[in-house]
Design brief:
Strand content: under 5%
Number of strands: 0
């Protein structure tokens, strides 16, 4: 234990902590800005009542399960660009960016069409009828926002792959401010705007994401840092080989997110079987848990960049150290988040709604959320670290086993067979997240040990 502690505090590790922090904190704030769009929607929609909040939760079950697949595919750009940057191969960086932009834009259109096709499923999920009626038009509006969001992600992941993380942070926070302002105007009908209720939150999200895509694109096009890559805006760089490489990394990464998020989505459906108040409470608790989770994905993005860059340099020792220090950072951060959830579990839900039953259920769920914070952080950083070394297939299998083979069945048994209700469903999620965290960190240690051994064994 003393040896491990000395290693964690060594000058070698301290340098990695420093580099990780300055790379990660804009990413964490940027991710916080992304999730605050949903938080702002829930806070302001919650004032309309439990039915509207439950409708937002139900619509997001469909939307986010499909959206995170696109998000995962877009993440392929970052490690590929980071590795090419480590190799100092400018033409490869340009090809990855231009092909990634095309892939993500087309994928955004396909996924949006897919959500529209999935909308009728809401009628068959055994949810309260009034909730489904409110959810469907809101879902159709936010579906359109997926297209500009994927364009934004293309520019963002390219910039972050080259180590530029601050501009996306500024643009995301600005887009979030626009979203909150439009929420106020369109949900409640202020300053002469129409009172659109839940649909107003959908329109606010759509407009803010269009603005974010435009400004991120303009930044990449005009910034001097990216001038050498302006050729990427030409379609002459389209390459089937590069597209296949992006998809080879991106599709499994997208599926990892789908299996995790869909598990939480199916948990929301099970909550709906317990009633409108329970589903609304789930929306509050998952909304709060998503804040710490999305900030942890900032550390995960940082580890992808650091690991990918060291892979391009063929520096396996620093690759391993960069990954391990990010694991330590996320444990400390998520431990602090867990403490906040425990201490403020009775206060946080009152920010969303004044329904006593909903607040009571949500406060119980926040206790479970506090317990799984560290597991949630470790598993997402584990996926990010493995994505950085382009190891995505085994983590996808781990996600299937952890969430769908173990987590959800355990949640169903605890919630319905053993009578624990909403907290039982969340205990199942806790089990799934913990299993994923253990397996992913083991996978990273195993892979990097082998890479380090191969490097030492090779001549020269």
């Amino acid at each position: 234990m003393d040896i491990c502690l000395q290693q964690m505090l060594s000058n070698h590790y301290k340098e990695h902590y420093k580099r990780n922090f300055f790379l990660a904190y804009p990413l964490m704030i940027s991710q916080l800005g992304q999730v605050l769009v949903g938080v702002a929607d829930s806070l302001m929609v919650g004032r309309l009542g439990a039915e509207h909040l439950a409708a937002a939760s139900l619509a997001n079950v469909i939307f986010y399960v499909i959206m995170v697949f696109g998000l995962g595919v877009s993440y392929a750009i970052t490690p590929l660009v980071a590795a090419a940057d480590g190799e100092q191969d400018q033409s490869k960086i340009t090809a990855i960016f231009s092909n990634g932009l095309v892939v993500n834009t087309i994928l955004g259109m396909i996924l949006a069409f897919g959500i529209v096709l999935c909308t009728p499923i809401l009628y068959y999920l055994d949810q309260p009828a009034e909730v489904v009626t409110l959810a469907i038009p809101y879902l159709r509006i936010i579906t359109v926002s997926l297209i500009p969001y994927m364009v934004f992600q293309s520019f963002r992941q390219f910039a972050e792959g080259l180590g530029n993380t601050r501009q996306a942070m500024y643009i995301t926070l600005s887009g979030n401010a626009v979203n909150i302002l439009l929420n106020y105007l369109l949900i409640y009908g202020k300053l002469g705007f129409p009172e659109l209720g839940l649909n107003g939150a959908g329109w606010a999200t759509l407009v803010s994401r269009i603005i974010m895509a435009i400004f991120m694109g303009l930044f990449v096009y005009h910034a001097s840092r990216f001038r050498p890559f302006k050729e990427a805006f030409s379609f002459f760089y389209i390459s089937g080989a590069v597209i296949r490489r992006i998809l080879n990394v991106g599709v499994p990464a997208g599926l990892q997110f789908v299996f995790e998020v869909s598990a939480f989505g199916f948990a929301a459906i099970m909550m709906g079987w317990l009633g409108t108040q329970t589903l609304a409470a789930h929306q509050i608790a998952i909304n709060l848990a998503s804040i710490s989770y999305m900030m942890a994905t900032g550390i995960a993005s940082a580890v992808t960049i650091r690991v990918g860059n060291q892979l391009g340099r063929k520096d396996m020792s620093n690759l391993r150290s960069a990954g391990n220090t990010c694991f330590i950072m996320v444990v400390l951060f998520m431990g602090f988040a867990a403490l906040l959830f425990i201490l403020l579990r009775n206060f946080f839900p009152t920010l969303y709604i004044d329904d006593v039953e909903v607040v009571e259920i949500a406060s119980q769920l926040l206790v479970v959320a506090a317990i799984f914070q560290i597991s949630d952080g470790v598993q997402v950083v584990g996926m990010g670290a493995l994505r950085g070394i382009e190891d995505v297939k085994v983590p996808t299998i781990i996600a299937v086993i952890a969430y769908w083979v173990v987590g959800l069945p355990a949640g169903y048994l605890l919630g319905f067979r053993y009578g624990l209700g909403a907290t039982g469903i969340w205990y199942g999620l806790l089990i799934g997240l913990s299993l994923a965290a253990v397996l992913l960190i083991f996978r990273f240690q195993h892979k990097t040990n082998r890479m380090l051994s191969d490097t030492r064994a090779s001549p020269g």
